[in-house]
C-alpha cells in the first residue's frame, strides 16, 4: 500500500479525469479528505467529498500497480500533463 498526501490544483474536468485514470489501474484507489474515505474509481463517491482547489487530501493505492497509480493520479490532481499512459 502506498499513501501520498497532496494539495489539489483542480482545473475543469479534473475529477472526471481522475476517475477515468483511476479506472485504468488494477489497484484499489482510495481518496481521504478529512475523515471521509471514498473509492477513487466511483464518480458519485468522488463528487460527494467535494474536492476543491487547495484541498489537502491523502491518496491511497493498494495492488500490483500501486506505484504507477499514485504517480499518475497525483499528476492529474496537480493539473500536470500526463506524460506516460500506464
Key descriptive features of the protein:
globular; 27% strand; alpha+beta; 86 residues; 3 helices; four-stranded antiparallel β-sheet; 33% helix
Can you put this structure into words, describing what you see?
The protein has 86 residues and is α+β, with helices and mostly antiparallel strands. Helices cover 33% and strands 27% of the residues. The chain contains three helices and four strands, in the order βαββαβα. A four-stranded antiparallel sheet has the order 1-4-2-3. Strand 2 and strand 3 form a beta hairpin. Helix 1 packs antiparallel against helix 3 (66-78). The radius of gyration is 11 Å and the shape is globular. The two termini are 18 Å apart. The mean pLDDT is 89.
Amino acid at each position: 500500500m502506498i499513501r501520498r498526501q497532496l494539495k489539489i490544483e483542480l482545473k475543469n474536468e479534473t475529477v472526471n479525469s481522475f476517475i477515468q485514470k483511476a479506472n485504468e489501474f488494477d489497484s484499489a484507489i482510495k481518496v481521504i479528505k478529512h475523515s471521509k474515505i471514498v473509492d477513487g474509481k466511483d464518480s458519485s463517491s468522488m463528487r460527494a467529498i467535494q474536492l476543491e482547489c487547495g484541498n489537502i487530501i491523502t491518496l491511497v493505492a493498494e495492488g500490483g500497480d500501486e506505484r504507477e497509480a499514485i504517480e499518475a493520479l497525483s499528476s492529474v490532481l496537480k493539473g500536470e500533463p500526463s506524460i506516460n499512459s500506464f
